[in-house]
Amino acid sequence: MTIEETALSFLKQDCIQEFGEKRGEEIYNHTQTFYAQLLENSDDRGSKAILEHLQKKLFPPMAYYKALLADGISQQEALTYVKKETQKSASIKKQEMERLAKMPLTYTVYRLGVKKFMKKNFPDEGWQTEWVQCDGKEIHFNLHKCIYWDLTKSHGCPELCCVYCENDNISFSGLLPKIRFKRTGTLGEGASFCDFHFIKV
């Protein structure tokens, strides 16, 4: 799989625009190399869902981050560049949420499908989910374990985890005005768990 087939399908064009044609292509090619290495040494834990996370969402930004650092860019600048790309991807996801928000009974539809969705797309092999509330007023669950946090740590870039987490705020803002997303902390920020609150407005 190549970067073009992932959530950062637009990365090559953005690299050239950001760094110029020669340097941009070099950074992009290094990103592709790091991406291939990450995939080669990855463990999907026997889960198709986790494999998809690794291929399309988790490793592309990590590979870009590693390529930027290898190019001599400072950690803070590299995080800013990666954040810019992942936020672009999150904005696309936000548009999907906006379409859902236009449906009648948006909250009810979301509530009835959320547990099945989480079980399928965020399985126990990579996440530990605690369901706190799922009624007519609020959907609330906590993640006590997350593969994004585990792998950013094991690959020596725990500071990158917050970049992934911040994109939830962008994506889920698309559910307004029907559903309001709220969170008080994440594992990447040092909290004991990531809390997700989807509140019926």
Structural write-up:
By secondary structure, the chain is of the alpha+beta class. The chain contains seven helices and four strands; from the N terminus they run αααααββααββ. It is globular, with a radius of gyration of 17 Å. It has a four-stranded antiparallel beta sheet.
Give the arrangement of secondary structure elements.
Blueprint: H1 11-19, H2 21-40, H3 48-70, H4 75-101, H5 106-121, E1 127-134, E2 138-146, H6 147-154, H7 161-172, E3 179-182, E4 194-200
Antiparallel strand pairs: 1-2, 2-4, 3-4
Short structural description:
Helix content is about 55%, strand content about 15%. By secondary structure, the protein is of the alpha+beta class.
**Total strands:** 4
Give the helices and strands as they follow along the chain: HHHHHEEHHEE
First and last CA, distance: 41 Å
Strand content: 5-15%
**Any idea what the radius of gyration is?**
17 Å
Note the main sheet. Answer: 4 strands, antiparallel
**Strand adjacency order, main sheet:** 1-2-4-3
Uncertain segments are none
Mean pLDDT: 97
Q: Given the C-alpha coordinates, what overall shape results?
A: globular
Percent in helix: 55-70%
Structural class: alpha+beta
Total helices: the number is 7
What are the key terms here?
201 residues, 7 helices, 4 strands, 57% helix, 14% strand, globular
